[in-house]
TrEMBL record:
Classification via NCBIfam families: PPOX_FMN_DR2398 (TIGR04025)
Protein name as catalogued: Pyridoxamine 5'-phosphate oxidase family protein
InterPro entries tied to this protein: Pyridox_Oxase_FMN-dep, Pyridox_Oxase_N, Split_barrel_FMN-bd
UniProt xrefs under SUPFAM superfamilies: FMN-binding split barrel
Domain of life of the source: Bacteria
Gene3D superfamilies documented for this protein: Electron Transport, Fmn-binding Protein, Chain A
Source organism of this protein record: Variovorax terrae
Every Pyridoxamine 5'-phosphate oxidase N-terminal domain range: 36-155
Amino acid sequence: MTQPADPHLISTPEQLASLFGEVGEASLKKEVSFVHPHYRALIEASPFAVLATSGPDGLDASPRGDPPGFVVVQDAHTLLLPERRGNNRVDSLRNLLADPRMALLFLIPGVGETLRVNGRASISTDPALLQRFAVGGSLPKCVLVIRVETVFFQCARAIQRSRLWQPVPPDARPGVPSPGTMLAALTEAGIDGETYDRELPARQRATLY
């Protein structure tokens, strides 16, 4: 028997437009195809971004962070993003090999507005390019050369609702499982969670770059 259609399911652009209404003029005007000087200021102030990619095995969103300015504005149409040491899954990079389209969401502590960049990325191991991003003699594995297609800032409502930049409450960690706790459960104790948690801070410090 055919199930009746869900009357509450939004399935057409017209339904979506009716639900949310017209786009405000400011929301349209703020999108440009280059890195405006004000947008450059946001990128250079940001120590953290989320990189989104798409590939044959699905979607990926992963964090990127370093001191402010770690994403370099090469020119109004080009960004440079170093790939530091990580867990070697390289999900984002594998996706980019198949589909160069990507997006970045920049966050700045204490600032409600975020910045969204859409573009296409290539992966470079040019020695001169790697050297530009050396930290303490350590080079990034590669550098993403991002061709900017659209840039716009996002209003502060999400940050305000989440209170993301409010002082961290003293009881913030209770109830949040540690990395070792999660790994022990996921591997049915194949990984010793207590040992993993105990050794993790030193391992992260030693392999930061």
